[in-house]
Amino acid sequence: MASPITTHVLDTNLGKPAVGVAVVLFKLDADKQYQKIAAGETNKDGRIVDWMEGQQREAGIYRIEFATDPYFEKQGKSCFFPTVTFDFRIENPDEHYHVPLLVSAFGISTYRGS
């Protein structure tokens, strides 16, 4: 079963999934501190689909952090964005949230996927 929050990373320069990108998921707590709730590494399809196994999704603010520098270093490339971090809001915990990252060594984009 897929996690209630999923992600994938696409290397837009290569037009292929970004394999082996470390990703950490955080949730903002009542004290306005981000608590780590999951971590994983993108698979051969550039996806993480199982990182919240057994955890309930709650409404709130979440943060996702992608370690892009090591991914590009493996390719022998310099990367302008050593880490990509962004926050997103979950208002309806019953819905699935897919948060992808489109990345190249000098550009990033994201959106709420399905």
From TrEMBL:
Instruction: Name residues in a coiled coil.
Output: none
E.C. code: 3.5.2.17
**Residues holding substrate:** 8, 47, 111
Please give the family membership noted in the entry.
Belongs to the transthyretin family. 5-hydroxyisourate hydrolase subfamily.
Q: Which GO terms describe its molecular function?
A: hydroxyisourate hydrolase activity
| Keyword entries, A-Z | Hydrolase, Purine metabolism
- The reaction(s) this protein catalyses: 5-hydroxyisourate + H2O = 5-hydroxy-2-oxo-4-ureido-2,5-dihydro-1H-imidazole-5-carboxylate + H(+)
Q: What does this protein do?
A: Catalyzes the hydrolysis of 5-hydroxyisourate (HIU) to 2-oxo-4-hydroxy-4-carboxy-5-ureidoimidazoline (OHCU).
The record's section on SUPFAM superfamilies has: Transthyretin (synonym: prealbumin)
Whose protein is this, by species?
Answer: Oleispira antarctica RB-8
A Gene Ontology annotation in the biological process aspect, one of them, is: purine nucleobase metabolic process
Signal peptide interval = none
Domain (Transthyretin/hydroxyisourate hydrolase): residue spans on this chain? 1-113
Q: Which PANTHER family match?
A: 5-HYDROXYISOURATE HYDROLASE, URICASE AND TRANSTHYRETIN-RELATED
Under the subunit heading, UniProt states: Homotetramer.
Q: What is this protein called?
A: 5-hydroxyisourate hydrolase
